[in-house]
Amino acid sequence: MSPGTPETPGSGATPPDPRTTDPRAPSRPEIVLALDYGLRRIGLAVADTLTRAPRPLPALQVIGDAGPGERELTALDAVARGLGAHRLIAGCPYNADGGAHPLAGRARSFAAALGARRALPVHTVDERYSSLEAEDRLRERRAAGHKRGRVSKGEVDSVSAAVILERWLSGEGRTDG
Fold this sequence. Notes:
- The chain is built from five helices and five strands.
- It is of the alpha/beta class and 177 residues long.
- The chain has one domain (28-170): Nucleotidyltransferase, domain 5 (2-Layer Sandwich), CATH 3.30.420.
- α3 (104-118) links the parallel β4 and β5 (122-126).
- α2 packs across α3 (104-118).
- The longest helix is centred in the C-terminal third of the chain and has 18 residues, at 153-170.
């Protein structure tokens, strides 16, 4: 192919980049914070829309038996502010059959409350099997010698948040339209 000649579909060209073809994609790089909502811990991961490489952060331990509440919202508000987050991505739990998990409504409400505090858009992603994928990744890292010692539940939750964020960045599993 000569320089300046446009490639035609089916000519072996690389597929279009969703960052430039997805109308929901931000026009400038943004910091994105992902949450893996749970009653005992909230896994966290961060990425930017330019490099698209999620990084797990330390999970937030939930205090009390009632699940996440005001204390956790305040702590996550500080995390989002400190990172300069532009968007929130929340994992929304679904059952294997596709039906909403009993925690789905709580996860959406919690993410919406956090988004409202920061005036940030909130997107949801189907988080089905993200914890299993996170456990597999951590097991592989340990087998390869990159991780020593036991894997904590908080690490699994935060790697799960990274999986959720990867899914959102690739356009997979979005449940918010």
